[in-house]
Amino acid sequence: MASNWYSVVIDANDIAVLSRWWAQVLGYSIVFESETEVAIAKDEDTNPGIVFVPVPEGKTVKNRLHIDLNPDDQAAEVDRLIDLGARRADVGQGESRWVVLADPEGNEFCVLTAR
Amino acid sequence: MASNWYSVVIDANDIAVLSRWWAQVLGYSIVFESETEVAIAKDEDTNPGIVFVPVPEGKTVKNRLHIDLNPDDQAAEVDRLIDLGARRADVGQGESRWVVLADPEGNEFCVLTAR
Question: Quick check: pTM over 0.90?
């Protein structure tokens, strides 16, 4: 017996905005939306998706879980994401092959080299 | 253009132990292992997987990202996960249909009702 991985849930101050932001990043669709939950996924039959739930508190420390992205072209994708509203983040990565960005609510994520 | 979702990365104090724990939870295999990274996935061709990277610091606040699991049988799966070393966690969920557990390093995750 094992559990299926259903989703990653992200606490957010503005679930409507942050869910749409990540949908643009990943080319995902909104598959469910209410006042207390927005879910995005590749399509309705593909798990895991990403679910956004509202919380009042802001982010305080470096997230212990983060998302890694696999782009076709790292430099072009970093430019696209910064145009969308990401900002570069320093989590002590130093010289690294991946680029650390933060989403509009400050959640760190990495853009890997193409693989 | 969009990025592919490559993985969720989890900061861990013991990547060898925590990666194997989550592999048991999900029925995943270890697809890469070094001293600085362990990756688990359904198989080598399926993304996203979960990557564990070592950090010295422990968990301090409720994680802003967490994993939701979709079991065939919620009660039986909760029992199995607690036998594996999960513990029940209180993040203020109150009466809820999902069960909040924490993994051996304290990362919260939810076991949903079967869907």
Answer: yes
Phi and psi dihedrals of B81, rounded to 5? -70, -35
Among chain B, residues having any CB pair with chain A shorter than 8 Å are 1-11, 24-27, 47-48, 51, 59-72, 76-77, 80-81, 107, 110-112, 115
Options 2.60.15.10, 3.40.228.10, 3.10.180.10, 3.40.50.2300; CATH of A63-115 = 3.10.180.10
Which among B9, B61, B65 has the least Cβ separation from residue A61?
A: B61
Pick from B25, B68, B71: CB nearest A9: B68
What is the rounded distance in angstroms from the CA atom of residue B93 to the CA atom of residue A27?
31
The CATH class that applies to domain A1-56 reads alpha beta
Provide ipTM, 2 decimals. 0.96
Domains of chain A by residue range: 1-56, 63-115
For B34-93, what is each residue's pLDDT tens digit? Answer: 999 999 999 999 999 999 999 999 999 999 999 999 999 999 999 999 999 999 999 988
Kindly state the helix (H) or strand (E) to which residue A18 belongs, with its residue range.
helix A15-26
